[in-house]
Write a structure and sequence with these properties.
The protein is α+β, with helices and mostly antiparallel strands and 92 residues long.
Length: 92
């Protein structure tokens, strides 16, 4: 059973307008590689020049922020739900 990835609206043009995609991956790093393989250009939106998750991109595994887990090495299990959430700035 694969991992379900929830794609935010700004990135859906890269996933052919799919709000959710399913991939097999054992870690977040493998998931990003798999997303790039299936949907070219997605990794550059998620990773900085050093290959790290961009500061303004939040990734959650089953509602847990990977920054408080193992970052890109956070393990994934079959059936996990991964949400990519771009940070939103604004205010008055």
């Amino acid at each position: 059973m694969p991992v379900t990835v929830h794609i935010p609206t700004p990135l859906r043009k890269l996933t052919h307008n799919q709000a959710e995609v399913e991939l097999e991956a054992g870690t977040i790093s493998q998931l990003v590689d798999g997303l790039e393989g299936a949907y070219a250009g997605l990794a550059e939106k998620l990773l900085d020049e050093g290959g790290e998750i961009r500061r303004y991109v939040n990734i959650f595994v089953n509602d847990e922020d990977i920054r408080f887990l193992d970052g890109k090495d956070t393990p994934l299990n079959d059936g996990d739900s991964v949400s990519i959430v771009p940070a939103i700035a604004g205010g008055n």
